[in-house]
Known about the structure:
Elements: E1 16-19, H1 23-33, E2 35-41, E3 48-53, E4 56-61, H2 67-80, E5 85-94, E6 104-112, H3 132-145, E7 149-156, H4 167-171, E8 177-179, H5 182-192, E9 195-205, H6 215-220, H7 223-233
Parallel strand pairs: 1-4, 1-5, 5-9, 6-7, 7-8
Antiparallel strand pairs: 2-3, 3-4, 5-8, 6-9
Helix pairs in contact: 2-5, 3-7
Amino acid sequence: MATPHINAKVGDFAKTVLMPGDPLRAKFIAETYLTDAKLVNNVRGIQGYTGYYKGKKVSVMASGMGQPSIGIYSYELYNFFGVENIIRVGSCGGLDAELHVRDIVLAQAACTNGNYLAQYRLPGTFAPICDFKLLNLAVNECEKLGANYKVGNVLSSDTFYDDANSGLEWAKMGVLGVEMESAALYANAARLGKKALCICAVSDSLIYQYEDLTADERETSFTNLITVALETAILL
């Protein structure tokens, strides 16, 4: 069945979906890494593809930017299209002195300064966390690849241009990086009984101001990130 945001049928998506923010990164992953990749969604230019990686059916679809956007797409994939696992393959700003551009952050949990979690009307503060099986598999793949990575907390921020410039305040609590989607993805997965993991490559550093990547480099140069996500996906 089609939804307002995804024009596809049940069965068009694999059980596991890789979800970059950028539609062009979704296209790049599909065309570079998948065989027999077919476009299964292009509503609003949010490209979704399904193909095969090492013989295993895998999908990749963009989420757009921010918690409201990934909240919509992940909810619809989980709820209407039979998806069980979503692996976000994104970028983040580094908040840790040991992390440099293209290093990997595995988001064990996600803080947020946004209001996405208010919808659940909980009598306290919910802590969005990833699925441990997915995290463990991804750690093993990072080790096999010899990638530089860290596991820990990220901040899902609703503000890219932060007037208070508060990013580094989160570093004192051991938060590794700042991105814009993981908390909403983890909350949807928890509410719907599904699995999720955010794997980010560092695209710029709030510690080392001279370290950053161009838009083209963010689109095509995260090879370790993509490999870890795909190798994890085929084990599910």
